[in-house]
Design the sequence.
């Protein structure tokens, strides 16, 4: 099965094309940042 690379979103009169690979990378980066913040809190570092 072929993996989707983009997704079309229709919102009223607007059409958006979402790059799914970009979204996956963005979500992964967000998770890593949240994990670092959790680890820093556990170790007593505040940023």
Sequence:
């Amino acid at each position: 099965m072929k993996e989707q690379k983009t997704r079309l979103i229709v919102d009223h009169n607007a059409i958006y094309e979402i790059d799914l690979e970009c979204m996956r990378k963005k979500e992964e980066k967000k998770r890593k940042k949240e994990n670092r913040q959790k680890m820093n809190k556990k170790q007593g570092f505040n940023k």
